[in-house]
Write a structure and sequence with these properties.
Number of helices: 6
Strand content: 5-15%
Shape: elongated
Oligomer: single chain
Length: about 190
C-alpha cells in the first residue's frame, strides 16, 4: 500500500472496499495467514458474498469479519469511514474535534464523537502501543494560548510565545538554536 499524504488521497484510496480489505488484512495478518480471532486456527475460508471468514474448528461464532476483535466491532459505520477517521486523527497535528471529523466524513456529530472516543481509547491501550515510557524526542509542538490570557506566574515559567517551536530533549547530532523547554520526568523513569 502506498502512503496517503493528504486527506483527499486517503478518502479516494479507502473508498474502494478492496483497498480497505487488503489494508486491514495486511495489518491484522502481517505474515499473510488469516487466523480465527477466537481459536487461532488457520483452517478458515473467505466467503466473498458475506465479506467474512468461516472457521472450521468446532466452536460458537464460527464466522468473523475484519472488524471482529477491533475497535470497529459492533459498529454499523463502514470501514471506509473508520479508516479515513483513523488517518485524520493520526495525522492531525493539533488534535481534531468531533465537529471537524463530522464535516470531513459526512456523518453526524454524535457518530464522529463515538469514533473519536474509540480511536483515542485504542491509542491508549497497552496491547496496541500504550503510553510512551522511554526517552522521547519531540521535534515540534504548539504551545497554546496568548500570554496575556495566562496567569502571571505561568507567563514567567513558560517564557514562550504561542506556536513557538521548542526542543524537549538534548540533541547529539547538532547544536540547536531553539529555546529549550522544561525537562519533565516521566513516571517510572529516573
Amino acid at each position: 500500500m502506498e502512503s496517503q499524504r493528504t486527506l483527499q488521497q486517503a478518502v479516494e484510496y479507502f473508498a474502494d472496499y478492496e483497498n480497505c480489505h487488503n489494508f486491514m488484512v495486511q495489518l491484522r495478518c502481517p505474515d499473510g495467514i488469516v487466523r480465527c480471532p477466537r481459536c487461532k486456527s488457520e483452517h478458515v475460508v473467505y466467503i466473498p458474498k458475506a465479506k467474512a471468514w468461516k472457521c472450521y474448528s468446532k466452536h460458537l461464532l464460527a464466522k468473523f469479519t475484519l472488524k471482529t476483535g477491533t475497535i470497529f466491532e459492533d459498529s454499523p459505520i463502514p470501514m471506509n469511514k473508520w479508516l479515513v477517521a483513523v488517518w485524520q486523527i493520526a495525522n492531525c497535528r493539533n488534535g481534531i474535534s468531533s465537529w471537524e471529523l463530522h464535516r470531513a466524513l459526512g456523518v453526524t456529530q454524535k457518530t464522529a464523537w463515538f469514533m473519536l472516543h474509540r480511536v483515542r481509547l485504542a491509542m491508549q491501550d497497552e496491547d496496541t502501543g500504550g503510553t510512551l515510557n522511554s526517552n522521547v524526542e519531540v521535534d515540534e509542538t504548539f504551545i497554546g494560548g496568548k500570554p496575556r490570557n495566562r496567569h502571571e506566574h505561568k507567563r514567567a515559567i513558560q517564557g514562550l510565545k504561542p506556536g513557538q517551536v521548542v526542543q524537549v530533549g538534548p540533541r547529539q547530532s547538532r547544536i540547536s538554536t531553539m529555546p529549550r523547554a522544561r525537562q519533565g520526568r516521566m513516571p517510572g523513569r529516573p
